[in-house]
Here is the input.
Amino acid sequence: MRGMILVVLLGPNLIAQTDKPKPAYDFSLPREERIKLAESAAPPEISGKATVYLLERTGYVKVREGTNGFSCFVDRQTPLNLEPTCFDTEGSATTLLTRLYAEEQRAKGKTEEQIHADIEKGYKAGKFKAPRKAGIVYVMSGSVYIYISENNQIVHVPPHLMF
Here is the structure.
């Protein structure tokens, strides 16, 4: 009996250490819910006038053209991340392009290593450009989750701004 209790108590911990967490992005959510998730990254006065991209199985699709230079989407710096994000004009013209490219390549079956190598080559060749000036990135959603490979865990990240 004692051994059975021990297995029950340790079982979930053993599984968590060996099984890879499931991706947090849910493609089956209705379109309006996914738009709200992307917009949750910034205050409504920013996100309500921003360009919005939705992640589909083939990559990101622009679903709304904005008027203020901001772009909102649910970023996935790894396939396990869920990061509602709004880039300002500079980030939309630079960093966002690499994020759109990465998801397009994931959809084509490329590995993370191949994607990182392609993006690095793209920077060297001038296809991608680093931000030329300081900007702001809104990540103010309460729904930010990132994968920590060292711990094999998905952790919640509090709302924040990046400059």
